[in-house]
Amino acid sequence: MPKPERLNFFIDPNRCIGCQACVQACTECDTHRGDSMIHLEFINRTQSVQTVPVICMHCEQPTCAEVCPADAIKRTGDGVVQSALKPRCIACGNCVLACPFGVPEVYDDRQLMMKCDMCYDRTSSGRKPMCATVCPSQALFFGTREEIERLRPMSAPVNRFQFGNQTISTRVFLMAPVQMASAQPLLDVTAAMSDIPQPRAMSLKVIADPFAEVEV
Amino acid sequence: MATIPADDLSITREFGPHLSRMTGARLSTSVEPERLVRTHCCFCGQQCGIQLKVKDNEVIGFEPWEDFPFNRGMLCPKGVKRYLQGSHPDRLLTALARDESAPAGFRPMSYHEAIAKTASEIQRLQAAYGNSAIGLLGGASLTTEKTYLLGKFARVCLKTPYIDYNGRLCMVSAGAANKKAFGIDRTTNPWSDMVGTDVIWVAGSNVAECSPITTNYIWQAREQGAKVIVQDPRITPIARTCDLFLPVKPGRDAALFAGVLNLMIERGWIDREFIETSTVGFDEVAAYCRQWTLEKTSDVTGVPRRSLMQAAEWWGTAKTSFLFHARGIEHHSNGVQNALGTINLVLASGRIGKPKSGYGTIVGQANGQGGREHGQKCDQLPGWRDITNPEHRKYIAEVWGIDERDMPGPGVDAYEMFRKIDAGEIKGLLSICFNPKISLPDSDFIRRCLDKLEFYASIDFFLNDTARHADIVLPGSLQEEDEGVVTQVEGRVIKINKAVNCPGEARQDWIIVQDLAKALGRPQGFTFSEPREIFDELRRASKGGVADYSGITYEKVERQMGVFWPCYSEDPQTGRPIDHPGTPRLFEPGGYNPVAKGNGPFYFADGKARFNVAEYRVPVDDISDEYPLFLTTGRVISQFLSGTQTRRIGPLVDQYPEPRIEIHPRLAEKLGIEDGAWTVVETRRGALTLRAMVVTTIRPDTIFVPYHWPGEKSANRLTVAAQDPISRIPQYKVCGCRVRRSDVPPDYASKLEPQQ
Which residue in B62, B83, B84, B219 has the most chain A C-beta atoms within 10 A of its own C-beta, making it the best mutation to test that interface? Predict the structure, then answer.
């Protein structure tokens, strides 16, 4: 019997409609019922309806774990970086400061860092994560690489990110325009943050100001 | 007596809306559900499949239903949190009677006493003023069984012509246009047909917020190469990345369609063979469109010429295409013309009745489709039959076991019913699944009408804002407390399954209606013992009608995961009994339908579709020197309709707590309004003070206010009660307004919670 292909998590911000179904569904999870581990970010609501769902990227070498003085953050054999271990976590917040993606949060009421664990209770029993199951635009997609490549020929999965001198590889993929992804299979986040467009920055196709000619 | 029995704030403090949160079994991770019930969401017309977790007669959560083919587990935030409407602190557990001496204006009453009182008041008013003194208002969130029963109850038991429903605010422009053009009123294709098409035109639909699951279909089509055209005064999330955005001025849609069709005709981008063989009326339409030159169309619509040209070229030269519209073009005093304008574009292209080509309206309510087919509309009988057609009357009278001469004729639309209340013709009202005090335009007029009623009874599960005027409130059922079918956006009949029993003295709505019939002394025809029996009669009543459900059974719906109507029990061609699977796709070449009888694919005797001249008219109460800005209204994703349910669900309220005025920064700067500032918007009807939300995603000459809130936050206190002459839909999507900064916060800010 052929080994089933590994299921992966793909984020496609180009598809995100900001509906927060993911945020609402995340609060239904069995391991952190009532709290959402997803942040839904409006990039700049004044300028655009563009939103981005932020889940844990599950780094191969998690910065959060590297900076943890209590060794409380563990990565499972299949690459899922988990919330801090309760007996060990000292709620110092190092992980919050260090994570390049801004994911972990310390919950003061329980003195614990908690974050997305890719619905470990669901994925470990063969189900899809809650957020990717409900996402109505499938900006959050959980499936095989073969599936996403077949379904989305205009984009390609990328899982290497450049933050200054740090290069990070992640278990979770981000969908990038296919030409760009094939030219440089690495997203330079620092370059994208610059006011002056850098050659390695990525631009999404969005409509130009359609109201420029409307008089007030 | 239907004035409010106590001040609004006291009623709000007692009856809400208060917020439900995840508590108890809903928060615990150690509580296992007893069972999962496969059913559908209670909100919009997508009708996503969902599994409800049930324990101890309570819905404690949900699990995605990934096998259901339409949404495959996907849900919007309303679907995710819909389970929190059950076991709610505001839930009506008994009947209520108006009582000015009670602190919150109502006292509990036993169910049987409330039924008896309602029946005796109906009898008193009918004896004094005639049968037509009673009006009945229904809704399109009810199951089809309930809508059928309401239509029958009005005509057979109450013997009044005055029944109408809240689909009047929703589906009727599309319905009327479909009837005129196709002879049948349904979306033409299943959504899965969309993937692989060349062009998708979305006209006036905030797809991502109002029908979120459709987003994935549209974007999956785009992944396969489809170009997406979006026509809207706002850059909604579906417009953000579209290939062509048509930033139309509110109320100018018919002009846009005429201009684009004119370009297509001029360039020869039309299917002459299809027009010749399968349609009638093209020449008149072409003659009308000739005046809509590129220049004139651009001037009137505010859409740049190059964009109009691009739309005409893409639409005109595509091989396959879909066109969708929704309330954005339908909520107009010109709504039918707007919808006909889109149909003309579709017919001229010849792209209909094919696997990758279709047309449809995106319905708004759970049963927006089924609720408009089986007789709760003022002019309609079951099976999409016509109440003025002698043959149709005769057939339904036979099914109902009454003399056709005893069946009332057509009534009037829901708004006109309020004008009849105002005029003293309708004295008593019974309503269910309708909250007109929030949802009808110029709603101060609606409030004054409610005050004039001699008797008003409301069936609801929460005390909605209109029911505050009621003499009697009868405690009805939540969607998960009953079973029955609804027809979703694609025309697919699906099954709502019961998860829990009604709490307290609450009853399933069809039982309440039957109890009223019994108390009125006319129980004949209202002795069904379960929804399945109502459905079986509905199947017979619909048989031979255009909306033929006769071949649908609950079992077939479950087995096939939905059945697309028409679904026949007897082959329409041979008359022999058949096991018909339903009709996923309409108008396929060579298809047989009982109206055309083989003459063609469309539902007219000659089998041909109709072009209709779709004339542009300036909106009523358009912008003027006095009111120089366009006001348009609509939904936000976390709220639904008048908010009776969604304003009671904590996590949904957190997501978007209160209405805001969307305003472009250039306009805001001119008026001295910053983001978050209290701002007054004023029309000829009234004024609201809300916070501003400064965004570049709206036309700078237009403001937007969502309509889900009551009282001082209610957008429909501003909107105009102008209606389409054919469909009678109100013009919610445009009127003139003016805007200014408010120096002080409104009074309500310190008294009311955001959702109230």
Answer: B219
Report the distance separating Cα A133 and Cα A156, nearest Å. 21
Q: How far apart are CA B241 and CA A146, in angstroms?
A: 25
Amino acid identity for residue A173 in this structure: F
- Do A136 and B238 make contact, defined as CB atoms within 8 angstroms? no
Cβ contact B256:B273 at 8 Å: no
Distance of CA A36 to the CA centre of its chain: 14
CATH 3.30.70.20 positions along chain A are 1-55+118-189, 61-115
The predicted-structure confidence for B453-508, as pLDDT tens digits, reads as follows 999 999 999 999 999 999 999 999 999 999 999 999 999 999 999 999 999 999 99
**Across B559-578, average pLDDT:** 97
Closest CB to A134: pick one of B73, B236, B247: B73
Residue B305 is classified by DSSP as H
Q: What is the mean pLDDT of residues B75-79?
A: 98
DSSP H or E stretch at residue A56:
none
Residue B194, φ and ψ in degrees, nearest 5: -65, -35
> How confident is the model over A149-158, as pLDDT tens digits?
999 999 999 9
Phi, psi dihedrals of residue A40, rounded to the nearest 5°: -110, 115
> Would the CB atoms of A21 and B75 count as touching at under 8 Å?
yes
Q: What is the pLDDT of residues B319-364, one digit of tens each?
A: 999 999 999 999 999 999 999 999 999 999 999 999 999 999 999 9
> Cis ω on the peptide bond leading into residue B247 (within 30° of 0)?
no
| Residue B273 identity (one-letter amino acid) | E
The total number of residues shown for chain A amounts to 216
Tokens in use for B605? 């005797």
Domains of chain B: 21-85 (3.30.200.210), 95-170+368-542 (3.40.50.740), 172-361 (3.40.228.10), 629-750 (2.40.40.20)
Supply the CATH classification number for the domain A1-55+118-189.
3.30.70.20
Q: DSSP letter string over B167-229?
A: GGGTTHHHHHHHHHHHSS-S-SS-GGGGTT-SEEEEES--HHHHSTTHHHHHHHHHHTT-EEE
Q: Which residues of chain B are within 8 Å of residue A207 when distances are taken between CB atoms?
A: 235, 239-242, 245
The whole-number pLDDT of residue A204 equals 55
Short-list B717, B740, B502, B653, CA closest to B16: B653
Q: What are the residues whose beta carbons fall under 8 Å from the beta carbon of A3, sequence distance 6 or more? A: none
- Contact: B216, A137; criterion CB under 8 Å: yes
Q: Which helix (H) or strand (E) holds B285?
A: helix B282-289
Q: What is the CA radius of gyration of chain A?
A: 18
**SS3 state at B630:** strand
Which pLDDT tens digit goes with each residue over B429-438? 999 999 999 9
CATH match for A61-115 among 3.40.50.12580, 3.30.1300.10, 3.30.70.20, 3.30.380.10: 3.30.70.20
Instruction: Answer yes or no: are the C-beta atoms of B359 and B188 closer than 8 Å.
Output: yes
Please work out, in degrees rounded to the nearest 5, the angle formed at the alpha carbon of residue B12 by the alpha carbons of A25 and B88: 35
Instruction: For B74, list phi and psi in degrees, rounded to 5.
Output: -65, 145
Start-to-end Cα distance in chain A: 67
| Tokens at B249, concatenated | 């001025």
Residue with tokens 């639909």: B205
d(CA A46, CA A43): 9
